[in-house]
Structures are given as structure tokens and as C-alpha cells.
Automatic annotation (TrEMBL):
<dbReference type="InterPro" id="IPR051320">
    <property type="entry name" value="Viral_Replic_Matur_Polypro"/>
</dbReference>
<dbReference type="InterPro" id="IPR043502">
    <property type="entry name" value="DNA/RNA_pol_sf"/>
</dbReference>
<dbReference type="Pfam" id="PF00078">
    <property type="entry name" value="RVT_1"/>
</dbReference>
<dbReference type="InterPro" id="IPR041577">
    <property type="entry name" value="RT_RNaseH_2"/>
</dbReference>
<dbReference type="Pfam" id="PF17919">
    <property type="entry name" value="RT_RNaseH_2"/>
</dbReference>
<feature type="domain" description="Reverse transcriptase">
    <location>
        <begin position="22"/>
        <end position="201"/>
    </location>
</feature>
<dbReference type="InterPro" id="IPR000477">
    <property type="entry name" value="RT_dom"/>
</dbReference>
<dbReference type="InterPro" id="IPR043128">
    <property type="entry name" value="Rev_trsase/Diguanyl_cyclase"/>
</dbReference>
<protein>
    <recommendedName>
        <fullName>Reverse transcriptase domain-containing protein</fullName>
    </recommendedName>
</protein>
Length: 475
């Protein structure tokens, strides 16, 4: 049964349909046991994209589990390169032929007749896996050496311009060999930085797309729970760039509890503005150097844990590589400060695992008994499991009077803004951010109170310890 169509878009649909027929992407059919409905979608430029509702066909299809590349690894591999070319496939999926006997399964109905696809359309459950496999096979000789492919996004990365020209020549040779068409209007050649998978990649590292920052900064207060959930979903994409993210969004996530009536408190409003400000000031994350040691600051608060991964560059400047933050479950908030600090190590290492597996990590903690805890052989099963997970890494535990999480994060942000202000502005490129080596030790006169070990490890003293060491009041 055909769906009703707005008469105003009928001419646009007919035009797009004619274009698909002329280009050999679809063809008319008379009989088919599979028929789907056409769904017109308006583009930003006012034109129409013809999509097909393949839900019934997808339910009957065997699933192809060929994996898509890990987006984070692609971004990390590309960032740090001196030269980049960001190539876009022209109607990528349509470059794959559909097997003759299967074409009738893609039949769809229109006001002007029924048609089927000769070339692979969007909307099929296995289209992404099929296309990724084809691209990986085509570029396998250069894959992960100077080329990374995510569906129809082909990224060529090199150390210098001469090497880049050679890599581009090899890329175009493969495109000609396999008949892969590129879109010149959406491709960018030989640049120092560019937009990839919603991020800005450059030799300096990885940054949030400024357009995304601008869009988030202009969002107004959500008026109901679903709108707040949508906001949190949008900003979750950039959480790796925001120090102490979990603590910043805590007032907002608390508003989503079922037992609470949705209403904005002063704490919620402050939290909403604070997270938007933190995103607008998010630092550029440096690219990890796997020939050097890493440093991870393990931080624990009353209701959240966090970790900051850094590395000292060739200029002896400590730079942030990634941030991790997580809200604690209700039962975890009752852990002692020592247990919370160990938990922040365990989950921080797990979050950064793909970068830390074969490198030495200097873990900085503030509790003096963390090392003894990790050597204790008489712990219960859960805590013994924590130790086992830490033992998977080459970890060097160092005790330091670390500033509590919020203070350390503010210190990193302040350093970033100072360096940005000191650098000359470039209208054509994003300002390069450097980081002075972070001094995370407490200054004289601002010392945290020294508490006896038995108090720090007592469950009954958790609220007192959190207040004295973090300034956090009990609920």
C-alpha cells in the first residue's frame, strides 16, 4: 500500500527518480514478491533524497557481522600527521553491484510504477558491512600504513609533503584499478588539519569541531526529561575532551531519576551552564607517543571517579591525551576513599586500554596506602579482582598530594587558556594549544589534613573523609 505524498514534493521526487534511472542505479520491474515503500527525505539544500523502507527485508536477511573500524583508533592514528587528504566516495554504496537474482528483493513502489536496485542502496541492514569489506579489500596494501577507511571516508595521512604526494598517487592508482569514484566537491587535499568523523584532526592532536561547540553553546534549558536526555546524549560525544565530565553532569543526571519531579533548581542551572562552558574550553588532546611512558592521574570524589592520561612531549611539556569520568553507583559511594581511588585506577586503565597495553604507566594517587592495597593477598573476591585487572598493565604507583579532581581539571583548563592567549591568532587555522607541565602538588599552606590510616579505611568514616579531603558535604 502506497503512502500519501505531499503534492509539493512530487516534482522533486519524479526528478530524482529519473536521475536514478538514467544513471543505471534502478530499473523498472513488473512482478516481485518483495515490495517496499518509498520514503522521501528533504536535504539541507532543499533537494529530495529517495529512501526505501526495507524493514521487512532486513528482518528476513542473515546479518553480516563484518566490523566497522573503531572511530577512536582512526582519529588517534590520523592525528599527529603533518599532511592529510580527506577523500569522500561519490555515492559510495551505489558503487557496489547487487547480484542479479537478488535485485527483485529491493523492489519499491511509487506513484509512477515499481522499481528495483541494480546497485546497493542505503537502508539495507548489511549495506555498511558489505561496503566496508569491499573498501578494506581494495586498499588492503596501504591500510593502516598511510590510509584509513571508514565506509566512504578515505583518509590519506603522511609525515611530509613529498611522502604525501607518493601516497596520493598510490591511492588514485587503486581507485582506478577497482573503479572507485571520489567526490571532488567534498574531498580536501594536502592540508595540515581537517574535519574527520565530527572532529578536527591535526599535527597538534585531536579537537572538537568548532561548529559542534557553537551548536551546544546555543542550546537553551531543556523543558522536560526527554529533552534533557537528548542534551546529555549530544554532549556525551565529546566527554573524552572534558575534564571531570561525570561530576559536571551529575546535577543533570540526578534530575532524570524516576522518583523526582522534573524542575530546574539553581544547582541544575549552574550545572547546565558549567558543562557548556567546559565544552567551549575543551583542550586539544595530544596524540600518544607509544615510545614514551604515560602518566595517569587517578582521582576520586564522593560520587564520581575520574582519570587523566597525560604524556610529556619532546619539549618537556606535559599534555593531556584523554579524560575519563564516571558516576559511582549508590553502593560504590559508600566505599572508603582508598577503595574509590583503587577503583579509579582500575576503570581508568580499562578506558585507556587500547593505548596502554604495552607501555609503562606512572599512576599518581593521593592515598598513601594504594600500593599496599594492591599487594594485599587477603582481600575479598571483588577487590582481589581489581588487583588482577591492574596487574595486566606495567604500572608504577606513585603517591603525591594531588589536588582534588575539580582543582586539577581547572588547572589544566587555565594552562590551556594562558597558552592560547600568548599565541598569535591564525584566521585560517585553529589555534595550536600547548600545555605547560602541570604542577599538581598542593602548595604550602593549602595542605589536606593527614588522617590516620584506620580512619581513611573505615566505612563509617567515609562522609568525614570525603569532606576533609574533597570538601564534599554528605547528602
Amino acid at each position: 500500500k502506497q503512502r500519501p505524498i505531499n503534492p509539493r514534493i512530487e516534482p522533486l521526487m519524479r526528478k530524482e527518480l529519473s536521475k536514478l534511472i538514467e544513471s543505471g542505479i534502478i530499473f523498472p520491474v513488473k512482478h516481485s514478491s518483495w515490495v517496499a515503500n518509498l520514503v522521501p527525505v528533504r536535504k539541507k539544500n532543499g533537494e529530495i533524497r529517495l529512501c526505501v523502507d526495507f524493514r521487512d527485508l532486513n528482518k528476513a536477511s542473515l546479518k553480516d557481522h563484518y566490523p566497522l573500524p573503531n572511530m577512536d583508533q582512526i582519529l588517534r592514528t590520523v592525528s599527529g600527521s603533518d599532511r592529510l587528504s580527506l577523500l569522500d566516495g561519490y555515492s559510495g554504496y551505489n558503487q557496489i553491484l547487487v547480484r542479479g537474482e537478488d535485485r527483485y528483493k529491493t523492489t519499491f513502489t511509487t506513484k509512477w510504477g515499481t522499481y528495483a536496485y541494480k546497485r546497493m542502496p542505503f537502508g539495507l541492514s548489511n549495506a555498511g558491512a558489505t561496503f566496508q569489506r569491499a573498501m578494506d579489500m581494495a586498499f588492503r596494501s596501504l591500510l593502516n600504513k598511510c590510509i584509513l577507511v571508514y565506509l566512504d571516508d578515505v583518509t590519506v595521512f603522511s609525515k611530509n609533503s613529498d611522502e604525501h604526494l607518493m601516497h596520493l598517487r598510490q591511492t588514485f592508482q587503486i581507485c582506478r584499478q577497482f573503479g572507485i569514484s571520489l567526490n571532488p566537491k567534498k574531498s580536501i587535499f594536502s592540508v595540515h588539519e581537517g574535519k574527520l568523523l565530527g572532529h578536527i584532526v591535526s599535527k597538534q592532536g585531536l579537537a572538537i569541531d568548532p561548529f559542534r561547540i557553537e551548536a551546544i553553546s546555543q542550546l537553551s534549558l531543556p523543558h522536560h526529561k526527554k529533552a534533557l536526555q537528548s542534551f546529555l546524549g549530544k554532549i556525551n560525544f565529546v566527554r573524552r575532551f572534558v575534564p571531570d565530565f561525570a561530576a559536571l553532569v551529575k546535577p543533570l543526571t540526578a534530575m532524570l531519576r524516576k522518583e523526582k519531579t522534573f524542575s530546574w533548581t539553581s544547582e541544575g542551572r549552574e550545572g547546565f551552564e558549567a558543562i557548556k562552558t567546559a565544552i567551549s574550553q575543551a583542550p586539544t588532546l595530544a596524540n600518544p607517543n607509544f615510545d614514551k611512558d604515560f602518566t595517569m592521574y587517578a582521582l576520586a570524589g564522593a560520587e564520581t571517579i575520574s582519570a587523566i592520561l597525560t604524556q610529556v612531549n619532546d619539549e618537556n611539556i606535559e599534555q593531556p591525551i584523554a579524560f575519563f569520568g564516571q558516576s559511582l553507583h549508590d553502593y560504590e559511594t559508600r566505599y572508603t576513599f582508598l577503595e574509590k581511588q583503587v577503583l579509579s585506577i582500575v576503570r581508568g586503565l580499562k578506558n585507556f586500554k587500547y593505548m596502554l597495553s604495552n607501555n609503562r604507566i606512572h599512576v599518581l594517587v593521593s592515598h598513601p596506602n594504594v600500593k599496599a592495597f594492591l599487594l594485599n593477598k587477603e582481600l575479598n573476591e571483588k577487590r582481589a579482582g581489581w588487583i588482577t585487572k591492574v596487574m595486566e598493565y606495567d604500572v608504577d604507583i606513585r603517591v603525591a598530594k594531588i589536588v582534588r579532581g575539580k582543582g586539577l581539571c581547572e588547572h589544566l583548563i587555565t594552562d590551556m587558556l594562558k597558552n592560547q592567549a600568548a599565541e598569535p591568532k591564525d584566521s585560517e587555522q585553529h589555534a595550536e594549544t600547548t600545555y605547560q607541565q602541570s604542577n599538581v602538588m598542593l602548595q604550602p599552606g593549602n595542605q589536606q589534613p593527614e588522617l590516620p590510616q584506620e580512619i581513611q579505611e573505615s566505612r563509617w568514616m567515609t562522609d568525614l573523609v570525603n569532606y576533609l579531603q574533597h570538601g564534599t558535604y554528605p547528602e
